[in-house]
Write a structure and sequence with these properties.
heterodimer, A: 98 residues, alpha+beta, SH3 type barrels, five-stranded antiparallel β-sheet, 2 helices, 5 strands, 32% strand, B: 869 residues, mainly alpha, ribonucleoprotein (chain A), nucleus (chain A)
Chain lengths: 98, 869
């Protein structure tokens, strides 16, 4: 749930989603679920020339499983906090496994 | 099964889409009745006996999901599935249906039909559905005119034929009661109507049959061959032009009855033939055979069933055909179950027609048959042109809709109930987490599940504010780090500035203080100590010592850290963090404040809490490895220092400082000071104009300055002189001052110590002994630093990041004797002149900033850059 928790803090921020099919889409993240399905508003394809057919689409729902990377504005991330959250998550899963 | 039958009667069902073959199936319910009747005669299962009447109690409102519930069953079921909705939409149409019924009756006004309806209500006809037809069949025929009105009377089947024999007279006797049907408002009423109609028809048929049968029975054998043929054609059905079809249909329906009757009358002979039928009838599929005629009517437009004539005809025909049919029908069903219903309706065989013709003359067969509606053009003929068109349009509409429904539903049953449950659970789960229903979960649980989001929102004031108390604490813990995060970046700004400002302020205060003091006094004091003379004589010494340190500088030994050590260090750091988090979590759970009148439980809790926090405290202290023995000879750095060599280790320091006591802070401070030149930020932090620091190292240094130094500084700022002396002594004795003095971190520490000492010099009580000690140390420091003065500037003249150097010089200058001040000036004179020169070429703002830095130093030694201008 860490990643989900993390993405929840990115609501309404502009991100760039890089898909496994090489398409990159920039848009405002409107919602996300625990499958990391992403709903984007004001979405635009980064390389319009290469993916012209995407240019007419502005609201997108991206299935989480097709996402390769998500580019995030650095100032939206609290690294120290994220580190601690990661530690907690790791410990929890360790405890769960044990 | 019964409920299927009922549902089928709905007008909607009739319209069922092409995809759903079963659409016509609904009629089957009646078939069961017929079969049941037959069964009685043969000792086969009696429908009435078998039927438990549960069907009547079913709640059809939910039939829409039948497909979902039962999956894709037999074709007949599929078709039926969604259209059940008596209570819902069907009821809305009930008025229309009644009207149509009325209309029809008014037009044709068959007296016989009306008579029948009365008594039949009592029977419970529901029976299994039969295979359905597509519903589009009729549309294939250009001439096709949907049958508008169906009369209950027409339906030839009797639910209870066994008993029927006695009844027939009754049924006929009572005059027709068509009106009751109109009144029907509720589903139940509608159903009752339908049943009644069917019953009536059946009875009528029974009567007819009985009469005819008796006559015909014996003659049947010859017919037998004919029937099979006829039945086969049924599949093709819908011969619009064939009037005879209608007649046949009735036969089919009636067959069971006939059979029964026959059986009764001619037990031995017919039974053999009839049994199969009866059995079939009981089964859903079999029922299809008889019902088909009925269904169509019911389903398509619940108009009053047309008439007796058909029934009569049927009866007439039936006697002959009945025995034969049973075998043939089953086949059809098996072959195309879906069509059976349709077939049943259309089942008009050429051969049959002829015989029927005569009989039919008496009655209007076409109209009378519900099933016929679709197939028989005759019915349409009776209608006005407008009506016909309207009906056609209506029918087409219905078919269209059914088709749509079928298309929509084609994927029904794709997911199993388990699948659905699974999805539902996930969705609920998500809802829970998404909405973070705090009411139901304790804050701690939420934190554990959603730590990042919860804390982040608290710190940054994200949209949703949670009423947790820990917020402020988290802010304490993480906001600080947040600011420090971007080493050299914009972020660091505040924290760093804060720190640097304080340091600058301290230096300035020291400068001011020094200025306020008469220089002479300093001189006299120093003079009294006799140091002035010493310094002169000692001047050469530093020159001698100069080379040694420089050579050291050239080859800063970089201890190779083995992978194992590195891993060990990282593990230590993680342990520290885990303990820190446990402490922080534990702090959040601190029980209420203790007071005099606290209850024992509270006190007890408090005690437990304290015990735990102390244990954690102890654990933390062990985790940072600070108490590991110092081994100067060791090639590997001290574990604590190793921790500080990692970024996250540095970041842990401020958090650690919050949890440890004064003594432990001093310990850490001491440890850092002792190993000052072993810190990677110092040992690798020496920069020259030719060899600037790598960006990575610069980040490390910044991070160190912003995370580790401030807590140390805060501590030094409050330390008494003896501790300052002790620390400076450690630096001089245990570290390579040349390296320390040429790094930002080392210089910062020196600035802190010196400026703190300067401030302590003036206040009320000065311990003379301490001061002497300090002066001695200061002189040693000065002597050590002097040789590297030209090299303490890390960058070229254009490097603006030199404020800390000027601060250091200022701090040194404040405490220096006039002679030392001269040496200071000599050492950095070039740099001063260059800076002043460069600043003249700079824009005013930058120039003033740089000059201000220089001035900091100049004023410390009683000069001013203005003088240089």
């Amino acid at each position: 749930m860490l990643i989900f928790s993390f993405f929840k803090t990115l609501m309404n921020t502009e991100i760039t989603v890089e898909l496994k099919n090489e398409v990159s889409i920039r848009g405002t993240i409107k919602s996300i679920d625990q499958f990391l399905n992403i709903k984007l508003d004001n979405a635009t394809v980064v390389d319009e020339l290469k993916w012209p057919h995407m240019s007419s689409t502005h609201d997108m729902f991206i299935r989480g499983s097709v996402v390769r990377y998500v580019h995030i504005p650095p100032d939206k991330v609290d690294i120290g906090l994220l580190e601690d959250a990661t530690r907690r998550e790791a410990e929890k899963s360790k405890a769960g496994a044990a | 099964m019964s409920f299927f039958g009922f549902d089928a009667t709905l007008p909607r069902d009739r319209g069922h889409s092409a995809h759903a073959p079963g659409f016509g199936q609904t009629p089957d319910a009646f078939a069961g009745l017929g079969g049941g009747a037959a069964a009685d005669d043969d000792d086969a299962i009696d429908f009435d006996d078998t039927y438990d009447g549960l069907g009547d109690r079913l709640d059809e409102a939910d039939d829409a999901f039948n497909d979902d519930t039962f999956g894709r069953g037999p074709a007949s079921q599929q078709s039926i599935g969604k259209d059940f909705d008596f209570a819902g939409q069907t009821s809305k149409i009930s008025n229309t249906i009644q009207e149509e019924q009325m209309l029809y009756q008014a037009r044709q006004a068959p007296s016989q039909q009306r008579a029948q309806p009365q008594h039949q209500h009592q029977h419970q006809p529901p029976k299994p559905s039969k295979p359905s037809r597509t519903g589009y069949e009729s549309y294939h025929d250009p001439n096709y005119i949907p049958q508008l009105e169906a009369r209950a009377d027409i339906w030839g089947l009797k639910p209870k034929q066994p008993t029927a024999p006695t009844r027939p007279p009754e049924n006929q006797a009572p005059p027709p009661e068509p009106q009751p049907a109109r009144k029907i408002v509720s589903l139940e009423e509608v159903e009752a109507m339908i049943r009644a109609q069917t019953l009536q028809q059946e009875r009528a048929a029974m009567q007819m049959q009985q009469q005819q049968q008796q006559q015909a029975q014996q003659s049947q054998p010859p017919h037998v061959p004919a029937y099979p043929q006829q039945q086969v054609p049924h599949g093709q059905l819908h011969f619009p032009g064939i009037p005879g079809q209608g007649q046949f249909v009735p036969h089919i329906l009636q067959r069971p009855q006939q059979v029964q009757q026959q059986a009764q009358q001619q037990p031995p002979q017919q039974r053999s033939g009839s049994r199969p039928q009866q059995v079939h009838a009981e089964l859903p599929a079999h029922s299809v055979q008889t019902p088909p005629t009925q269904h169509p009517t019911i389903l398509q437009r619940q108009r009053p069933p047309p008439n007796d004539p058909a029934i009569q005809q049927q009866r007439n025909a039936q006697p002959q055909s009945a025995p034969q049919r049973p075998p043939s029908q089953p086949r059809q069903i098996l072959q195309n179950p879906s069509r059976l219903s349709g077939q049943g309706q259309s089942m008009v065989q050429p051969g049959m027609q002829a015989p029927q013709g005569p009989r039919g003359s008496g009655h209007n067969r076409g109209p009378s048959y519900p099933g016929m509606v679709v197939t028989n053009p005759e019915q349409l003929l009776h209608l006005s042109k407008e009506d016909r068109e309207a009906f056609l349009a209506e029918d087409a509409k219905r078919a269209k809709r059914n088709h749509k429904i079928a298309q929509l539903s084609k994927d029904n049953g794709l997911m199993t109930p388990q699948d659905k449950n699974f999805i539902t659970r996930i969705q609920l789960q998500q809802l829970m987490t998404a909405t973070g229903n705090l009411d139901e979960q304790s804050p701690e649980t939420v934190l554990a599940e959603d730590f990042y989001y919860q804390v982040f929102s608290q710190i940054r004031g994200a949209p949703r504010q949670t009423p947790h108390q820990p917020a402020s604490q988290f802010a304490q813990t993480y906001l600080f780090q947040t600011n420090n995060r971007y080493g050299a970046g914009r972020r660091q700004g505040r924290g760093a500035d804060n720190h640097m400002q304080r340091m600058e302020q301290q230096v300035q205060r020291a400068v001011e203080a020094a200025k306020a003091k008469p220089k002479a006094k300093q001189l006299t004091i120093e003079g009294s100590l006799g140091k002035i003379s010493f310094s002169n004589s000692k001047t050469p010494r530093p020159l001698l010592s100069m080379k040694r340190p420089v050579s050291h500088d050239q080859h800063p030994h970089k201890p190779k850290v083995s992978v194992a050590d590195r891993k060990e260090t990282l593990r230590n750091i993680e342990n520290v963090y885990m303990t820190l988090m446990r402490m922080e979590d534990h702090e959040r759970t601190i029980p209420g404040q203790l007071s005099q009148d606290s209850s024992p439980e509270v006190i007890q809790k408090h005690m437990e809490w304290r015990t735990k926090i102390e244990a954690l405290h102890k654990q933390l202290w062990e985790d940072i490895k600070i108490m590991e023995p110092i081994n100067p000879a060791s090639l590997t750095p001290h574990p604590f220092i190793a921790i500080l060599s990692h970024a996250k280790g540095k970041k842990a320091i401020p958090r650690i400082f919050r949890h440890i006591d004064e003594q432990e802070r001093i310990t850490i401070l001491t440890m850092v000071v002792v190993h000052l030149d072993k810190l990677n930020v110092v040992s690798h932090g020496v920069a020259t104009p030719e060899q600037p620091l790598s960006p990575a190292m610069r980040d490390e240094i910044e991070l160190f300055l912003h995370s580790v130094v401030p807590p140390l500084y805060a501590h030094i700022f409050e330390s008494p002189l003896n501790i300052i002396i002790g620390l400076l002594g450690l630096i001089l004795e245990r570290t390579n001052v040349h390296i320390v003095a040429r790094t930002k971190v080392g210089m910062s520490l020196l600035i802190m110590l010196i400026s703190r000492a300067e401030l302590l010099k003036e206040p009320p009580e000065i311990n003379v002994v301490d001061w002497e000690n300090w002066t001695t140390l200061y002189n040693r420091l000065f002597d050590s630093v002097e040789p590297v003065l030209p090299a303490i500037f890390p960058g070229s003249i254009n490097d603006t990041d030199d404020m800390y150097v000027w601060q250091f010089l200022a701090a040194m200058g404040v405490g220096a004797s006039p002679e030392q001040q001269q040496r200071l000036v000599l050492g950095v004179k070039d740099r001063v002149m260059e800076t002043v020169g460069v600043s003249k070429a700079l824009p005013p703002e930058m120039a003033s900033a740089r000059l201000a830095n220089v001035n900091l130093f100049m004023r410390a030694i009683g000069l001013d850059v203005e003088l240089l201008g």
